[in-house]
Structure of Helix-turn-helix transcriptional regulator:
Amino acid sequence: MKNCIRALRTARGLSQEALGEQLNVSRQTINAIEAGRYDPSLPLAFKLARFFALHIEDVFDDGEGAAS
Amino acid sequence: MKNCIRALRTARGLSQEALGEQLNVSRQTINAIEAGRYDPSLPLAFKLARFFALHIEDVFDDGEGAAS
DNA sequence: GATGAATGTAAAGTGTTCTTGACATTATCC
DNA sequence: GGATAATGTCAAGAACACTTTACATTCATC
């Protein structure tokens, strides 16, 4: 599952650690999700999308078309 | 995390088993998600929302406000 | 009352998500 | 060169998502 979290985060001048603190997850979790090592849980996907004021489908893309 | 999968499914006259087959998951998985026993993975949440032609935020509600 | 379809739930097993702690690299600043 | 900040990654373990198998209940129909 692709995502654009790194772009959204850096556009706001946040470090991985700072974003993790905002969402109550570790910086390693942010790093792993940005690197695509695994997908976040649904609750964390909600937190991420809400933090960036976007729909989940606008932040993540499972590559099955009709994303939004 | 709340969801309205049962309402969406029954409105289409589908059994839990039939929905599971459509999405390639077991009927127990559909049952557990409808019952709120656990949240689906993000990929399964995408499949469910896409099947019902809705945004993930319209199918699931993590109760933190500003759902859509 | 027997049959079949739909549902609820439990147990055991597998793979995934997330944690903490640790170590390495790179870049900047003094 | 030494200190600090940001990032990449690994390992071990806890917690969660999902599977198969199995058994029970409910309801409709015969």
About this structure: The beta strands of chain A are 2-3, 60-61.
